[in-house]
Amino acid sequence: MSGGVDSAVAAARAVEAGHEVVGVHLALSRMPGTLRTGSRGCCTIEDSMDARRAAAKLGIPFYVWDFSERFRADVVDDFVAEYAAGRTPNPCMRCNERIKFAALLDKALALGFDAVVTGHYAEVRQGPDGVELHRAAAWAKDQSYVLGVLTAEQLAHSWFPLGATPSKAEVRAEAEARGLSVAAKPDSHDICFIPDGDTRGWLASRVGAEEGAILDRSGERIGTHPGAAAFTVGQRKGLNIGYPSPDGRPRFVLEVRPKTNEVVVGPKEALAISELAGARFSWAGAAPADAASGFDCEVQVRAHADPVPATARLEDGELVIRVEEPIEGVAPGQTAVVYVGTRVVGQCTIDRTVSAVPASR
């Protein structure tokens, strides 16, 4: 129970279905002020109190489990290491993968519970080859992307009661009808462990910020940056090159090179990617029978991005995804989630991309 309306209603539906339900809130930091407060983050002190009140209203036991050390090592330290390596990580994916559906689920199963129930908008179904993960009924709220890292074993012990709910408005109305005080609470967003929202400043204090070269695609130095770790592929603001490109068009970050502390920039069309691949991949259920020969699919590279038609196959230890039409703003470190219809087939952390536009253009 995060302290939000979704997890409160999910718990209420689990109670109503006749299950023995215990509410658990995750303490992810022992240091006051190191996680966001108010409604902008999640797992704050305020959130724990909201979760406790919801559990009391539902008449279920409530506990706070301290996962702060695991969260620091598996999510925060990973976030810093990925940026230091020039990649753009998704900490919410890591939290789901390593905290909520690994550490939390492992502890729950060890204590004799059958499943972890959350307020995510997605559905677990039984398919012909076993358990499957599917998109939620409400595509506008669908959260299957951030659950794409879950394995068949984890899905078998997961339940998402809100998956078939047509809209968030219906969830809020249900919460109000049940007398839950979080009915009108705003959704959480932003990175919870960066209290003031200043990601660049937060990273600079941990990775370091040393001036380096801004290069164009030909390798010519055209400016100076305050620290490569602060930049991500697709970024436009903050380059401060000082003069326009030869054609007068804006420049975008195309590549971050942490070893040489360089940032490569170029035109927007150079962000177009025709292929992406990653060696760190997993299947959300049974692996596709045609994984080695290739299969038609759709790929989604951000939580709220539109899925794009593609083909995927296993090649030399990588999940290689080729899109039918180029997509923009894809960075190493991001997660590519593969769908067939509404089903999440699997995912990979992007290690490399292939530009659809040659460097000479």
Automatic annotation (TrEMBL):
Gene3D superfamilies: Adenine nucleotide alpha hydrolases-like domains (2.30.30.280), HUPs (3.40.50.620), Translation factors (2.40.30.10). It is found in: Cytoplasm. GO terms for biological process: tRNA wobble position uridine thiolation. It comes from the Bacteria. Residues 141-143 are annotated as: Interaction with tRNA. Keywords: ATP-binding, Cytoplasm, Disulfide bond, Nucleotide-binding, RNA-binding, Transferase, tRNA processing, tRNA-binding. Residues 202-266 form the tRNA-specific 2-thiouridylase MnmA-like central domain. Disulfide bonds join C95-C192. The record marks H120, Q334 as: Interaction with tRNA. NCBIfam families: PRK00143.1 (NF001138), trmU (TIGR00420). Belongs to the MnmA/TRMU family. PANTHER family: MITOCHONDRIAL TRNA-SPECIFIC 2-THIOURIDYLASE 1, TRNA 5-METHYLAMINOMETHYL-2-THIOURIDYLATE -METHYLTRANSFERASE. Catalyzes the 2-thiolation of uridine at the wobble position (U34) of tRNA, leading to the formation of s(2)U34. This is tRNA-specific 2-thiouridylase MnmA. It comes from Protaetiibacter intestinalis.
